[in-house]
């Protein structure tokens, strides 16, 4: 059952939280943490000028005693969505999902683009906390535990949507089933008859990228097809990296018959590498992406990809945030929504082993294009 949340209720909830604070004032927090009241205020407002160990000590007291700001500085009745760049389809679709839920309840939705501030430091956080939103949704977060703690210490409810790496246990999250999506894509290629499958994964420091890559490897090994180390590459989730790594793969003496990519931008880069090499998709090479961005429907040929439910992720994150704002019990703090394999024209059965070599038999490739 979804919470019945309104603008008026937001203010009422904030006031009740303030009344329940009892004796836990800024002065009490300062006394327990062994610091001054101005130091506690700086931590609450996300400001700089506090030593890391001091900040951690204050945050621990705030969490332990459940400090909430008094009603005099009650939050504005709206949600704030924090992005790490607004150029992607993911950001737009997640924002739409948040708006779907917030709009039904006449709630305002604001956004903060961390990239516009040149990093993940405190200037943007200070501005965000000063606005005192009712709740915050952080999208595709690369936060460290310390940065999560900074926002959590403010007492504002927080949810992570599609996190790059797992958030702390205290921060609920909504994401897609990356593992099962990658397994489905791999099984699709194996089912078509591909045996020489290349993998292009995302950044190794991102759990979401490692999970997709390892899922592909696991699916291949389960099918009795251990991945060839020479066919495994990692890069950034960028078109340029897909082009570079795709070119390397297609120049091999025995190039792959299929390429599984960690995201759609990498796959689009492989498309361009194939075009430059005179390699036909899917006649010479099958390509699979991951995410389901709009461009995958328009490219030639339309791309087979694992669709992520970005809009649904945004809506689920907003509903979860409303539960936190309403102080309702949250049964599941780790929500995963299913992905779906969209099979399009970029995948087909591999050509016979001796039919042609990529980039050599251009006449055959040209005949396929005709």
From TrEMBL:
Keyword Transcription: yes
Record-annotated HTH lacI-type domain positions: 24-78
Gene3D superfamilies: 3.40.50.2300, lambda repressor-like DNA-binding domains
HTH cro/C1-type domain residues: 24-68
Domain of life: Bacteria
GO molecular function: DNA-binding transcription factor activity; transcription cis-regulatory region binding
InterPro entries: Cro/C1-type_HTH, HTH_LacI, LacI/GalR-like_sensor, Lambda_DNA-bd_dom_sf, Peripla_BP_I
Region (Disordered): 1-20, 348-370
Keyword DNA-binding attached: yes
Compositional bias of kind Basic and acidic residues: 355-370
Pfam families the UniProt entry points to: LacI, Peripla_BP_3
Alphabetical list of PROSITE patterns matching this protein: HTH_CROC1, HTH_LACI_2
Keywords from the UniProt entry: DNA-binding, Transcription, Transcription regulation
CDD domains, per the entry: HTH_LacI
Protein's recorded name: Transcriptional regulator
Species, as recorded: Actinoplanes lobatus
């Amino acid at each position: 059952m979804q919470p019945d949340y309104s603008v008026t209720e937001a203010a009422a909830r904030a006031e009740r939280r303030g009344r329940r604070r009892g004796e836990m004032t800024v002065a009490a927090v300062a006394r327990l943490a062994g610091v001054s009241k101005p130091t506690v205020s700086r931590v609450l407002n996300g400001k700089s000028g506090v030593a890391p160990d001091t900040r951690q000590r204050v945050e621990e007291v705030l969490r332990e005693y459940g400090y909430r700001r008094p009603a005099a500085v009650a939050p504005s009745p709206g949600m704030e969505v924090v992005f790490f760049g607004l150029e992607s389809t993911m950001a737009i679709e997640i924002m739409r999902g948040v708006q779907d839920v917030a709009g039904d309840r006449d709630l305002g939705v604001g956004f903060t683009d961390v990239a516009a501030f040149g990093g993940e430091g405190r200037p943007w956080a200070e501005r965000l906390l000063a606005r005192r939103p009712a709740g915050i949704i952080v999208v595709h977060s690369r936060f460290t535990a310390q940065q999560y703690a900074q926002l959590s210490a403010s007492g504002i409810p927080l949810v992570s949507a599609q996190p790059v790496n797992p958030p702390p246990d205290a921060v609920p999250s909504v994401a897609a089933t990356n593992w099962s999506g990658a397994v489905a894509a791999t099984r699709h290629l194996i089912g078509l008859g591909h045996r020489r499958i290349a993998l292009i994964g995302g950044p190794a420091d991102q759990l979401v990228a490692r999970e997709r890559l390892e899922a592909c490897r696991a699916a291949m090994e389960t099918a009795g097809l251990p991945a060839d180390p020479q066919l495994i590459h990692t890069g950034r989730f960028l078109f340029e990296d897909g082009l570079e790594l795709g070119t390397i793969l297609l120049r091999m003496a025995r190039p792959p018959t299929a390429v599984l990519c960690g995201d759609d931008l990498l796959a689009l880069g492989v498309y361009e590498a194939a075009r430059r090499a005179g390699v036909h998709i899917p006649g010479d090479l099958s390509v699979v992406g991951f995410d389901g961005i709009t461009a995958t429907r328009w490219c030639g040929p339309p791309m087979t990809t694992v669709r992520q439910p970005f809009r649904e992720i945004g809506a689920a994150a907003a509903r979860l945030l409303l539960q936190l704002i309403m102080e309702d019990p949250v049964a599941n703090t780790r929500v995963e929504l299913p992905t779906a394999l969209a099979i399009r024209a970029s995948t087909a059965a591999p050509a016979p082993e001796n039919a042609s070599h990529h980039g050599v038999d251009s006449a055959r490739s040209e005949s396929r294009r005709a």
